[in-house]
Specification:
The chain is an alpha/beta fold. Helix content is about 45%, strand content about 10%. Strands 1-2-11-10-8-9 form a six-stranded mixed beta sheet, sandwiched between helices. The chain has a five-stranded parallel beta sheet with strand order 4-3-5-6-7, with helices on both faces. Helix 17 links the parallel strand 10 and strand 11. The mean pLDDT is about 95. It binds 6-O-phosphono-beta-D-fructofuranose.
């Protein structure tokens, strides 16, 4: 069965929301906490180690009711069931979307279990030094070679869970930028480095080119026969990996029902596994699994991903907010935003609906941000006093990991203060100086989590995965394909030919042609 294909703007609830929005758009809402002493209780969700406060949003009970009704009217429940039951909801690629099956500990597919055991075994041998390099030395460094979903998730998680890391150093080669590859190789010893080439397709230009450069570098000091001790592949294209020279037992399989940007839970997470150990990796999966159950079973009004998605739709489609920021008050989460940017924007940056029609309403939000408190000293000026409405998610933890409560209290005081200042502004004060006036009324969600553990990180990531799914369902788009990245790849092939043949006239566009001529002049 295919996903529901309802144009959201044609529903009765959308029309009711438009009417409601006209009543809401000019409202300064700071007083609502005075008028309704229960507001902070009414607009919150407590779940396991998570506390979501969404009371500082430009919503009333009626807004929430209407948004929840919209979710009903577009058949969100049915879509969730379809996704989890493995229907081929990625219609344009004719694939199921089952990253949730990678962490379904109640009903694990035998092939998922098998791969997990292979990951456990391999990562343990690398970590305890029994799986050695070609000169008999233990592995000290693990390099993940991959891009997009084959990079961002593993890097984000290994950075986020640095506290739980073992002695292995983890590196990421993603960019085709040869300078970066050279810089990364500078500190590495071929005798003690393990390279994991991660590519679902095993055809991605950057990854294959970088892996070839690295292989050449390795072979300066070692022989072809040594490759099997140092090169591992993670791919759905086993033949491609074998052609590259990876032996079959060194290939960790991937399934076509796992999308790249949702693949960190699969064998794509091998570098995570090596870095934090299998048990912690399993905890990460379990945290995501807990969130999957919450998402699947909880009523929508108590359902974290659903509520966050609906709020985002409210701002995106009614207030015309084009972007939303994510600010995590933890340096460990400094790679969260780049990870979310791929997850959210590659999924929901679409302008054709599920019926194949051009869309005339807004879809995918622009996601941006960085960590707090650094961000406060960079772009928060614009959040507070700029002309744009930027709903912001604040993510923070009750407990620090190293026990430094002095710093942590300051960090979190800033978190709480910023959400308050954004909401309240200088509303209650008489401010004569216009430059010191803060309008307030700026919406935020506060996601307060007990502690940054592998389990909680798994749940947090799953929240955002499910949030983007809900939004895609509402917007009537296919969130799980990414045709939009293909055109540039094709054009680049022609451009590379023009560069290699030193012939700018091979490219079509006059501006590009001139640029190429200039580039080729410089590189001669
Ligand atoms: O070009 C985009 C993309 O296809 C992403 O969706 C994917 O995560 C990335 O490239 C890498 O793809 P692969 O894992 O096949 O190398």
């Amino acid at each position: 069965m295919s996903l529901p294909k309802v144009n959201p703007t044609k529903t009765d609830t959308w029309k009711a929301l438009e009417k409601h929005f006209r009543e809401m758009e000019m409202l300064q809402m700071q007083d609502v906490f005075l008028k309704d002493s229960d507001r902070a209780d009414d607009f919150k969700i407590e779940w396991q180690d998570f506390y979501l406060d969404y009371s500082k949003n430009r919503i009333t009970d009626e807004t929430l009711l209407l948004l929840l009704k919209l979710a009903e009217e577009i058949n969100l429940k049915e879509a969730i069931v379809q996704q989890f039951s493995g229907e081929r909801i990625n219609e344009t690629e004719d694939r199921a979307v089952l990253h949730t099956a990678l962490r379904d500990f109640n009903n694990m597919k035998p092939e998922v279990w098998e791969t997990l055991q292979k990951m456990r075994h391999f990562s343990e041998e690398i970590t305890n030094g029994s799986n050695k390099g070609f000169t008999g030395k233990a592995i000290t460094d693990v390099v993940n070679i991959g891009i997009g979903g084959s990079h961002l998730g593993p890097e984000m998680v290994t950075e986020a869970l640095q506290f739980y890391r073992n002695h292995l150093r983890t590196h990421f080669i993603a960019n085709i930028d040869g300078d970066d590859v050279a810089e990364k190789l500078k500190s590495l010893n071929p005798e003690t480095t393990l390279f994991i080439i991660v590519s679902k397709s095993f055809t991605t230009q950057e990854t294959i080119a970088n892996a070839s450069v690295v292989k050449k570098w390795f072979l300066k000091n070692a022989s072809e026969a040594d490759i099997e001790k140092h090169f591992i592949a993670v791919s759905a294209n086993v033949e491609g990996a074998k052609e590259f020279g990876i032996s079959e037992e060194n290939i960790f399989p991937m399934k076509d029902w796992v999308g790249g940007r949702f693949s960190l839970w699969s064998s794509v997470g091998l570098s995570i596994c090596c870095s934090i150990g299998f048990n912690n990796f399993e905890e990460l999966l379990k945290g995501a699994f807990e969130m999957d159950k919450h998402f699947k079973n909880e009523d929508f009004n108590q359902n974290i991903p659903v509520v966050l998605a609906l709020l985002s739709v409210w701002y995106n489609n009614f207030f015309n907010a084009e972007s939303e920021a994510v600010v995590a008050y933890s340096q460990y989460l400094h790679k969260l935003v780049p990870y979310l940017q791929q997850a959210v924007m590659e999924s929901n940056g679409k302008s054709v609906d599920r019926n194949g029609n051009k869309i005339d309403y807004q879809t995918g939000t622009i996601v941006w941000g960085n960590v707090g408190s650094n961000s406060q000293h960079a772009y928060f000026q614009l959040l507070h006093q700029g002309t744009k409405l930027i709903p912001t998610d604040f993510i923070g933890f009750s407990e620090p990991l190293h026990g430094n409560s002095y710093n942590h209290n300051i960090l979190m005081a800033n978190f709480f203060a910023q959400t308050e200042a954004l909401w309240e502004g200088t509303h209650a004060e008489k401010v004569e100086n216009p430059f010191k006036f803060f309008e307030g009324n700026k919406p935020t969600n506060s996601i307060l989590i007990k502690k940054l553990t592998p389990r909680n990180l798994g749940s947090l990531i799953a929240i955002y995965e499910h949030k983007l799914f809900v939004q895609g369902i509402i917007w009537n788009i296919f969130s799980y394909d990414q045709w939009g990245v293909e055109l540039g790849k094709t054009v680049a092939k022609g451009t590379l030919t023009a560069i290699e043949k030193n012939n700018p006239s091979l490219v079509k566009n006059p501006s590009t042609r001139k640029l190429l001529a200039q580039f080729l002049k410089k590189s001669q």
